[in-house]
Specification:
With about 300 residues, the protein is an alpha+beta fold. It is about 30% helix and about 25% strand. It has helices spanning about 15-25, 80-95, 120-125, 140-145, 205-220, 235-240, 245-255, 280-295, and strands at about 5-10, 30-45, 60-65, 70-75, 110, 115, 130-135, 150-160, 165-175, 180-190, 225-230. Strand 3 (about 60-65) and strand 4 (about 70-75) form a beta hairpin.
């Protein structure tokens, strides 16, 4: 698995999947690899219904099922972000040396990965957790539904290989009633697990340029198509993929000998696999976060 680019075709017609299939197979000598199927559910907390318990804002939860994993994005608007907490720690250290700021109970975002599919619903039911589907009706109907599945929409499409370096995924966004709300296109460049840092004068890397060009080439020529790239900044990735510094890794790096004059590469010279690289479950995790973010921004979640 490799670095992935995502695009959203907001006003894609219902026949867009077939048009893309024909374009990839005829003009790119593509190879059909199988189905692309995702399901997405959203929930909200009901903490304000607890007598005597006050909350500034209810929490939200979106769960995206991809293959055998469920990626769950939780958000508490009242909790601080990692960056905000670090800034307060730095300010306190400069104004009141020796005084420490205790960490919050939790941060604004959490993005755990669960397995197998269905484990989240079982956990909510067993704990009688105060989460309900966002689209759930109020009153007696809500009480009858209980926890529910919360499934609101799905992405259904196909996966193609172009040569040996590229995978392309294309799928329609389907609401619970079957209505089509555009589509997603995803291009994955298999040889690289991470984004190179060198950028051109437009602020984009060569790989980003390749990804955008490939996505544009597989799109059919449809008048007035509304297509946007789905991206987020490095600061947002750091917030979502936050990892506390590993002292063992820092010590190991400091002990490495930088004066080795051996011109031949050794096993230790190979770049290590880092948490957050676009490989394995981490690639799926990043892809899931981009898809959830795009649908939330459009108000579909």
């Amino acid at each position: 698995m490799g670095y992935t680019g995502l695009a959203r075709w907001i006003n894609a017609p219902t026949a867009s999947i077939e048009l893309i299939h024909q374009n990839i197979m005829r003009n790119h000598q593509g190879q059909y690899k199988g189905k692309w199927s995702l399901s997405i559910r959203s929930y909200r907390s009901t903490l304000s219904s607890i007598p005597g318990y006050q909350v500034h804002a209810e929490r939200s939860m979106c769960a995206l099922t991809m293959n055998e994993n469920v990626f769950v994005l939780l958000e508490d608007p009242a909790a601080p972000m990692h960056v905000e907490y670090q800034q307060k720690v730095a300010e306190l250290a400069s104004t009141q040396p020796g005084v420490t700021l205790p960490p919050p109970v939790h941060y604004r975002h959490a993005f755990p990965t669960l397995s197998p599919p269905g484990a989240l619903e079982q956990l909510l039911a067993q704990l009688r957790a105060r989460w309900v589907p966002v689209r759930q009706t109020s009153g007696s109907a809500a009480g009858q539904k209980g926890q529910g599945t919360g499934q609101q929409l799905s992405i259904e499409g196909h996966v193609y290989a172009i040569g040996t370096d590229w995978l392309v995924r294309a799928g329609n966004v389907l609401l619970a009633g079957g209505a089509v709300k555009g589509m997603f296109l995803e291009a994955e460049y298999l040889p690289l697990p991470t984004m190179p840092t060198r950028a051109n004068e437009r602020g984009e890397t060569d790989l980003q340029f390749l990804l955008s060009n490939l996505l544009l080439s597989v799109l059919p020529n449809v008048p007035d198509a509304r297509i946007v790239a789905v991206t987020i900044g490095d600061a947002q990735w750091e917030e979502i993929l936050w990892e506390e510094p590993d002292e063992a890794e820092q010590t190991k790096a400091a002990e490495q000998d930088d004066d080795d004059d051996d011109i031949y590469a050794t096993e230790g010279d190979l770049p290590p696999t880092r948490k957050g690289d676009w490989v394995g479950v981490e690639r799926d995790r990043r892809s899931a976060f981009l898809i959830i973010g795009a649908l939330k921004q459009e108000g579909l979640l």
